[in-house]
Amino acid sequence: xxxxxxxxxxxxxxxxxxxxxxxxxxxxxxxxxxxxxxxxxxxxxxxxxxxxxxxxxxxxxxxxxxxxxxxxxxxxxxxxxxxxxxxxxxxxxxxxxxxxxxxxxxxxxxxxxxxxxxxxxxxxxxxxxxxxxxxxxxxxxxxxxxxxxxxxxxxxxxxxxxxxxxxxxxxxxxxxxxxxxxxxxxxxxxxxxxxxxxxxxxxxxxxxxxxxxxxxxxxxxxxxxxxxxxxxxxxxxxxxxxxxxxxxxxxxxxxxxxxxxxxxxxxxxxxxxxxxxxxxxxxxxxxxxxxxxxxxxxxxxxxxxxxxxxxxxxxxxxxxxxxxxxxxxxxxxxxxxxxxxxxx
Length: 344
What we know:
Distance between the termini: 53 Å
Number of helices: 16
Structural class: alpha/beta
Number of strands: 6
Number of domains: 3
CATH superfamily of the largest domain: P-loop containing nucleotide triphosphate hydrolases
CATH topology of the largest domain: Rossmann fold
CATH class of the largest domain: Alpha Beta
CATH architecture of the largest domain: 3-Layer(aba) Sandwich
Mean pLDDT: 90
Order of helices and strands: EHEHHEHEHEHEHHHHHHHHHH
Radius of gyration: 24 Å
Shape: globular
Strand content: 5-15%
Low-confidence stretches: none
Helix content: 55-70%
């Protein structure tokens, strides 16, 4: 299968030598949208864009529409571009037709298949198998996943400079841990922080005061308070999360994730390994710091204690999803149980 990474995609855009097909998928929504639009504008932008650029919603797309669009010649241009966003791939017969169109696409057209909200797992392609094979054979499958912490840190520091402010690497890492690793969110918050600190350096205090922290970041802070046995602040933060209308199931999922981090870090140390050494085994790409942060509190707990915490989390999850019990009450009870476990 022909695969292309972000550097290869940038190279195609720079040289303007385009492949007949680009199938863009992956975890990072911002990058997928950015490059789908970049390809469209580069190939078919300009005074003849209305003739040479056609966009389709994949959910309602008919193959005869796509076939007509692909077969039409460009107007006063070397190539035209056809962009299909979120092709659903529900009908096997339609998938076969799409694969056939990809294999026979004329050189005057570039087809961009962009998976925005539709999920595509190349390792378990299912209904996408034939489409993936055709796209890889004729053009390229481009997977754009979350950037790691190092890449995001560099991006944010450079982005702050371009926006007329400054951001130190250590502060950028704190920014990522506070707001998550979604590029769209980070760049939006950076825009706000840079406007606030025009000509100055953005500080951690600025991030705490102005940036919208992700639920995951707030729940991670909740986890730290529980691990430290600080019940007053833990319950205060839990009430803040409720007041922000965070769903109990969201809070529980993030809390469970923190305890899974603890368990994995503890298991790694029990095996004589650094927690970060097992990051790749559990899919922590771009989030390796979670295992590093879990190392210190995990060293003070036993595997037996952590198994008990995970059982409590599972029990609460089952009750949340299968009973009419008040979700907030269930979470308050869970936090109390986890605080007791931490004190033990």
